[in-house]
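Okay, can you check this protein?
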Amino acid sequence: MRSSFKVGMIGTVLAIAAFAAGAAHADTVVISSHASIGAPVQNPSSSMTWAANPTTDNLTVQVAGKTCTLVSSAKAIGATGCNYALNVGPDGTVTGALTAGNPGCTPTAQVASSCK
């Protein structure tokens, strides 16, 4: 009797773990910064990528003195993660886009305005 109870409990725990693992998707934020050098004229840029399985409803990114609050895939449950691109111009202006994701992710039209 005890052994069938243990087997049942182990099966339940494994099923819950599989469901929870299936709900998490890796989110990414690619941050690119651009500079402008006057003499000699150059326009260098750099880029970095952050990727993780989110544990909160929002991704909070601080860039160019602003805090961007973007919806994560922990909140926007779907088939893919929420993947964003943030671009910082030479003047500190932040623009951005949803590069891939679910309907519940922050839409491209709202990415830049989420940075305050």
